[in-house]
Specification:
Blueprint: H1 27-37, E1 44-48, E2 61-62, E3 72-73, E4 77-80, E5 84-98, E6 113-116, E7 128-131, E8 136-138, E9 141-148, E10 154-155, E11 166-168, H2 176-184, E12 189-193, E13 197-203, E14 207-208, E15 219-220, H3 223-234, E16 237-244, H4 248-261, E17 264-268, H5 278-285, E18 289-292, E19 296-297, E20 302-307, E21 310-315, H6 319-338, E22 348-351, E23 356-357, E24 363-371, E25 374-377, H7 386-391, E26 394-398, E27 404-405, E28 410-415
Parallel strand pairs: 5-6, 13-16, 13-17, 14-15, 17-21, 19-24
Antiparallel strand pairs: 1-12, 2-11, 3-10, 4-6, 4-7, 5-9, 8-9, 18-20, 20-21, 22-28, 23-27, 24-25, 24-26, 26-28
Adenosine monophosphate binds next to helix 3.
Length: 421
């Protein structure tokens, strides 16, 4: 059979330009839009403090009591009414002592001192403490060398937090330190947001489950285990929605069921405008689809839509792009929906250990890690190079306008930890 005489299309002058008539939305603009459009979707429940780690406060919490609740001593020593003048001081000791949790019940007359132990409430008539190391003790008296300021070695009532003051604001995701603070100010239970339920769905005829036998042309589903654990690590309730074939009816069924179960759906794959890109096709059919052509690498395409009132983030199929889009777009968006407010990842400037040229006009995220104080990047930018995601310990963010990075130039490194990973 003779081959038909067809010529390939000629190279176009603008073959390196962005597609004609397409507006590429800058990353910051896309983020601002998400921030503006999304709202909190989770309910509220009461949670005992002991179970509240990682939970999001649904309301401001104010201190039920001051911390410290009463003036107390910061050291082991002897308390008296200060200040002590310059020079030698000798004070008679009263009988008894004040210890943490066991207050001294009597009075300490002016010119007398009392034994005090760290954390003890200051007895009546005591406002100043001399360290035991600075004292000689003999015949029921202490001797030390002044001067000593009034209030020395003591903690004032409420010097940390005063009763009624705001201890932590609504939207705060509680850290271990927060639990210490809330407990100290007398809070035993909090009003928390219920966990945001995030459904994770993979799409593609080529995908097989880890552990199954992969035939020719098949690949293991890498996105689902990654995204499920990522969403859990960030602190949401991850729901495994399985894997949908490249079949519109099957995918529709998956989405219908998912929308009943979860607050938000993350799909991966099938988000472009190709023949087998059924996520974007279905969302378009439903009339609630925005294809976001974001000036971002890696990351295209991102399809955002509503399915039966449930937001769908149609992430790219390539695992690197899927992870970057999840961290950059889905993470702050999910945080907002969960009641934790819009979360910007914390990054810091470090010198580059690499060289790179890029097209101005788009944001780039490189798989990176810090070694010897400099950011090094993975040797390949290929968005199917999953090993690079694993090699990396964070992302280097290169600003839209940059053209060239030289070794030593400052670049912004965002550790995975900044995203809660
Ligand atoms: P798509 O956007 O569906 O065209 O997918 C883009 C690329 O990502 C293709 O090479 C897919 O095989 C690959 N891909 C899509 N989903 C996954 C997944 N869950 N795990 C690993 N690779 C995937
Ligand atoms: Mg696909």
């Amino acid at each position: 059979m003779s081959k038909p005489d067809i010529a390939p299309p000629p190279l176009r002058n603008d073959c390196f330009a962005l597609p004609a008539g397409v507006n590429w939305t800058p990353v910051d603009e896309a983020l601002a839009l998400l921030k503006d459009r999304l709202t909190v979707v989770t309910g509220v429940e009461t949670v005992p403090l002991m179970q509240a780690a990682g939970r999001i406060l649904a309301a401001d919490v104010s201190a039920k009591r001051s911390n410290p609740p009463q003036p107390n001593t910061a050291v082991d020593g002897y308390g008296f009414s200060g200040p002590a003048p310059d020079g030698p001081c000798v004070l008679p000791l009263v009988e008894g002592r004040a210890a943490a949790g066991v207050p001294f019940s009597g009075d300490v007359p002016r010119g007398h001192a009392v034994r005090v132990l760290t954390g003890a409430a200051l007895p009546e008539g005591v406002d100043t403490v001399i360290l035991e190391e600075d004292v000689t003790l003999d015949q029921g008296h202490i001797a030390f060398r002044g001067p000593l300021k009034q209030g020395a070695n003591t903690r004032k009532a409420g010097e940390d937090v005063t009763e009624g003051a705001l201890a932590l604001p609504a939207g705060r995701r509680l850290t271990p330190a927060d639990l210490a603070l809330l407990s100290a100010v007398g809070v035993a239970e909090i009003s928390a947001r219920k966990a945001l339920r995030v459904g994770i769905l993979s799409t593609g005829d080529e995908l097989v489950e880890p552990g199954d036998t992969a035939g020719p042309g098949q690949i293991y589903d890498a996105n689902r285990p990654m995204l499920l654990s990522l969403v859990r690590r960030i602190g949401f309730d991850a729901v495994d929605l399985g894997c949908a074939a490249d079949d519109r009816a099957a995918l529709k069924l998956h989405l219908d069921q998912a929308a009943q179960q979860v607050d938000v759906i993350l799909t991966s794959g099938g988000a472009s405008a190709g023949d087998e890109d059924h996520v974007s096709a279905l969302l378009s059919e439903a009339g609630a689809m925005q294809e976001w052509r974001i000036a971002l690498k890696p990351g295209r395409p991102l399809a955002l839509g509503m399915w039966n009132h449930t937001p769908v983030f149609g992430l790219p199929g390539n695992p690197v792009a899927a992870m970057v889009c999840t961290l950059i777009f889905a993470h702050p968006a999910l945080s907002l929906m969960a009641g934790a407010g819009w979360q910007e990842p914390m990054g810091f400037d470090v010198p580059a250990a690499f060289e790179k040229r890029k097209k101005p006009g788009r944001r780039e995220y490189l798989r990176a890690r810090i070694r010897e104080g400099r950011a090094e990047v993975f040797h390949s930018e290929g968005s199917g190079r999953i090993s690079g995601l694993s090699w990396a310990e964070g992302l280097v963010e290169i600003q839209d306008g940059a053209r060239e990075i030289k070794p030593g130039d400052p670049v912004r490194f965002i550790p995975y930890g900044s995203f809660g990973l």
